[in-house]
Design goal:
Helix content is 33%, strand content 19%. With 524 residues, the protein is α/β, with parallel strands linked by helices. Strand 18 and strand 19 form a beta hairpin. The longest helix has 19 residues.
Length: 524
């Protein structure tokens, strides 16, 4: 078990009990599932799109079922035979009525757990400030508190854990902290950088989540969880700078940055989009400090635990530098992003389907070409017209999209369901096919598909297909407005991917060259 992700050996064994994990495609759920398996539990993972879990190392040891917490029938089915049910989802970012959606989903989950005779519900919520009426809380924290109450009133013994800032490689809180501190030696910041808080390491969060499953039946309450350090966000940035061996940061707080302005500021500087940054910023308006540590009575802390801020930051930073990040905040789909599968029939009744096709013969082995294809994005870029990609990413950020800064979890390998800049991996067949679905803001749905194979003569062939399914007249106008740039963007991509593969295999440039069978024809 790795030091950052898994609970300690002192956690009680699961003895084969069945744990239902919702949110298994998310940051915490994706780490909790293997931690439960390693502790002796059987795991059933509920996912709207089970294929997103297909390539995860722990998925073969778990039962993966399709369902959604807003669908009562699928939740009831998933609850069959469950001993402990983990609620790790929320509807933040799905629209202005996300509080209602959260309320209804929690009610469905609570009723299904009660009817199925579940022994315990465990929920990870947000730490709320002492003495602040709920009416003055941010919608994010208010909804988290309401969900906790619904689960506590379900008739099923519930453990509601409340955490402030979670520090771990790949968490949204850690990524926000890391990019703000590393990129801005001088910062004009919101006044909330002076608000006190109590961060907690993801390693400790997982230990408390796993340990909560074995609590006595009479326990039905909330627990505050946090590390040993209470500090301001300004102090946290300075502590990160020390751990990362950066010069001391100059931080100048100003009172004029509202949570909305703060979220856009964070979105411009960090990979965290405004839709996620805003609740993080709003949560820091009030002091969030633990008022008790009663959790230790039921889940005893190992020596040296919970981890202090410096050790939590060092562990997270080490895993980022070693490219061993198990899950990221972007593991979960962006709310509102398209989830439709790629239409396989361009003549279907839904309207026009536009395509840009490119094909090249490559002076390299299929294996060398595949390494380039699977390594696309992130630090490697997109092999064509960098300015166009950068501008498109910046425009996406300005309208509230994810932009290009999400990068990738691993520099060499991809998994179905994970994010890749402003794309998401929809399908991957190692050595042959990579299909990406766009999560940028578009008047339609878009995919990018890359295929590696051999032609009839046995030569390595690269095929590339960009697909766009427009919505309305705006979608039609969008496609035709960008069509003149396809030769530079998509044609350049195909050409440079082929050349990169040939270079990496040290192919001689002796006239064999790279045969060019480029095809470019948008076909409605």
């Amino acid at each position: 078990m790795s030091g950052e992700e898994h609970p300690t050996e002192s956690t009680p064994a699961g003895d084969g009990a069945l744990a239902l994990v919702t949110g298994a495609t998310g940051y915490v759920g994706g780490r909790l599932a293997p931690a439960l398996l390693d502790t002796g539990y059987r795991v059933r993972a509920l996912a709207r799109t089970p294929s997103k879990l297909r390539d995860l190392p722990w998925a073969e040891r778990a039962e993966v079922v399709q369902g959604d917490v807003t669908d009562a029938e699928s939740v009831r089915e998933a609850m069959r035979g469950v001993d402990v049910a983990y609620y790790l989802v929320h509807a933040l970012g799905t629209g202005s009525d996300f509080e209602r959606t959260d309320r209804e989903a929690a009610g469905i989950f609570a009723r299904a757990a009660r009817d199925a005779g579940v022994r315990r519900i465990v929920y990870l919520g947000g730490l709320t400030p002492a003495g602040v009426p709920e009416s003055r809380l941010s919608p994010h924290l208010r909804s988290r508190a309401e969900v906790g109450r619904i689960l506590l009133d379900s008739g099923v013994p519930a453990t509601v854990l409340r955490a402030a800032v979670v520090l771990g490689s790949g968490s949204a809180s850690f990524e926000m902290l890391r990019y703000l501190t590393e990129r801005l030696p001088l910062m004009i910041t919101p006044s909330w950088v002076n608000t006190r808080m109590q961060p907690v390491a993801v390693r400790d969060v997982l230990a408390y989540l796993v340990g909560s499953a074995a609590m006595p039946r009479e326990v039905n309450r909330t627990f505050d969880i946090g590390g040993p350090d209470v500090l301001t966000y300004r102090e946290l940035m300075q502590r990160y700078a020390v751990v990362a061996r950066l010069p001391r940061r100059l931080i100048l707080p100003v009172p004029i940055l509202t949570p909305q302005l703060s979220s856009h500021w964070i979105g411009l500087v960090t990979p965290v989009p405004a839709a996620i940054a805003r609740p993080l910023a709003e949560s820091l308006r009030h002091e969030v400090v633990c008022r008790e540590h009663d959790i230790a009575e039921y889940v005893p802390d190992a020596p040296g635990r919970p981890l202090g801020v410096d050790e939590a930051l060092a562990l997270a930073l080490r895993r980022v530098q070693d490219a061993q990040v198990a899950t990221r905040w972007s593991s979960a789909s962006v709310p509102g992003a398209p989830s439709d599968p790629l239409p396989t029939d361009p003549d279907w009744s839904g309207g026009s389907l536009y395509e840009d096709r490119r094909e090249r013969l490559v002076d390299a082995s299929p294996e060398a070409l595949w390494r380039v294809v699977e390594g696309i994005g992130g630090e490697h870029g997109w092999y064509s017209f960098p300015l166009a990609w950068a501008v498109r990413g910046r425009l996406d950020r300005l309208v509230g999209g994810v932009g290009l800064r999400r990068g990738r979890r691993d520099a060499q390998h991809l998994r179905v369901g994970e994010s890749l800049d402003f794309w998401r991996v929809e399908e991957i067949e190692p050595g042959r096919l990579l299909r990406l679905r766009a999560e940028m803001r578009l008047p339609g749905l878009a995919w990018l598909e890359m295929t590696v194979d051999r032609d009839e003569a046995g030569r390595t062939r690269y095929r590339q297909r960009a697909v766009f399914l427009p919505r309305g007249l705006l979608g039609q106008a969008y496609w035709w407005s960008i069509s003149p740039f396809h030769a530079a963007v998509f044609g350049g991509m195909a050409r440079n991917i082929a050349l990169t593969a040939a270079r990496e295999e040290d192919a001689p440039g002796t006239g064999r060259g790279t045969a060019d069978g480029t095809v470019s024809h948008p076909t409605p």
